[in-house]
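Running low. Invent one:
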Amino acid sequence: MFIVFDLLATPTGESLVPIQLVQRRTALEAFYHSVRSHEALKLSPFTRNLEQARWWLESEGAVLDGLIAKRLDSVYAPGERAMLKVKKQRTADCVVGGFRYERNSSLVGSLLLGLYNSDGKLDHVGFTATLHDLDRKAPDRKPRTIDHAAGL
């Protein structure tokens, strides 16, 4: 499936880069409706209504990673992040099962996270993305074993 969310040129090759998002969206919708017989092509939803956007964010669950907010009067800015990403905050109580070194460094790059499964084994579920510089020094001691059964 291919989800279209912006149109930078018309099918005839006319550049839409210098025009405002609201005009590009109109062109995108016209293009989509002209070719929507393709099942693999979907039009990204769009709203100016804050309550609608909140409903999308709350109701889509794990399917939706987040929303993108853009200024309607903005022109396309190649290489710039001229938008705001809005994501639902998710939390989980995870176990730090290890770490990865930062590339070409002896500093910690990320922590490896795990959750215990129903058999009591630790499954890797992800990693942290950002650590503050003060938290990046790699441990200089040997790993210790943890007695899971005793809850230590």
Q: What stands out?
A: The helical segments are 21-35, 50-59. Strands lie at 2-4, 41-43, 67-69, 84-86, 95-101, 108-116, 122-127. The chain is about 15% helix and 20% strand.
